[in-house]
Write a structure and sequence with these properties.
By secondary structure, this protein is an alpha/beta fold. Helices cover 32% and strands 22% of the residues. The longest helix is centred in the first third of the chain and has 15 residues.
C-alpha cells in the first residue's frame, strides 16, 4: 500500500512540474498549512558558506532567502516550466537576478570544487541514486556542506493540520520511525530531524572532508646513482 501511495505521489509531482506548474505554489502553501517554507528554511542550519547550489529549486522560493544570508545561490532545475515561473517570481521580488540553469543532479554541469554548499528540498528519486551523490561530492569544495530536506511532518495542533497529517501519513510515514542507513557517500551523511513552528523536517546532512593538515608533503628523491 505504501508503494502505491508513493507511485501516486510521484505522478502528482510530475504533473505539478509540468502542465500544473501554475498551481505548484498554492499546493505547497495550502496543502502543508504554511509549514513548507519553514521546512525549506531548515537547510540554513547546516549551510555555512557559499556559493550555494540548490538542486531542484522549483519556483524559486528558497533562492532569495539564501541570497539574503549571503550564500550566493545558483539553481539547477530540470523543468523548463519551473525555471520560467521561478524567473518571473524572482523578478517580482526586486532582487538582482539569481541564476537558474537547466540540468539534473546526476550530471551537474559545473567544475569540481565549485560550491561551498549544496542544498535541496523535497527532491525527486534522484536523491537515492549513487551517481547524484558522486556528483554532489565532486562539485563541493573540501569542507563544503550538503543539506537536503527529504520530508516533513505536521504537528496535529489544529483540526486542519491534524487532517493533513492523517492524510499524508500513508505516504511519508512518521519521522520518528526507525530510519534506514543514509545513502553511501563520501560526504559522511547523517539524518537530522529539526523542529519547526508546527511540525518537523527530516534532513540528510553531511560535509566533504577537508585534506588533513597533519599530512606531511611527499618528497621526491632523485633516482639512486644520479
Amino acid at each position: 500500500m505504501r508503494q502505491l501511495f508513493s507511485r501516486l505521489a510521484n505522478l502528482a509531482f510530475e504533473f505539478l512540474y509540468g502542465p500544473a506548474v501554475p498551481f505548484y505554489d498554492w499546493v505547497s502553501r495550502v496543502g502543508f498549512a504554511g509549514e513548507w517554507s519553514r521546512w525549506q528554511e531548515t537547510t540554513l542550519r547546516f549551510t555555512r558558506t557559499g556559493p550555494t547550489l540548490e538542486l531542484g529549486p522549483g519556483t524559486g522560493d528558497l533562492l532569495p532567502l539564501l541570497q539574503r544570508h549571503g550564500l550566493q545561490p545558483l539553481g539547477l532545475e530540470r523543468s523548463a516550466q519551473m525555471i520560467a515561473r521561478a524567473r518571473r517570481k524572482l523578478r517580482a521580488t526586486g532582487l538582482p537576478a539569481l541564476p537558474i540553469v537547466r540540468g539534473q543532479a546526476e550530471a551537474i554541469p559545473f567544475a569540481p570544487n565549485s560550491f561551498g554548499a549544496v542544498v535541496a528540498t523535497f527532491p525527486s528519486d534522484w536523491v537515492f541514486r549513487p551517481t547524484a551523490w558522486a556528483e554532489i561530492a565532486r562539485v563541493l569544495r573540501p569542507g563544503g556542506d550538503v543539506a537536503i530536506v527529504l520530508g516533513g511532518e505536521l504537528t496535529p495542533d489544529s483540526f486542519g493540520r491534524r487532517l493533513r497529517a492523517w492524510a499524508y501519513r500513508p505516504l511519508y510515514g512518521r519521522l520518528t520511525n526507525t530510519l534506514p542507513p543514509p545513502p553511501d557517500s563520501a560526504l559522511n551523511l547523517r539524518w537530522e530531524i529539526v523542529a519547526t513552528a508546527h511540525g518537523q523536517a527530516l534532513l540528510l546532512v553531511g560535509r566533504k572532508q577537508e585534506p588533513s593538515r597533519d599530512t606531511a608533503p611527499e618528497i621526491g628523491y632523485p633516482p639512486a646513482g644520479s
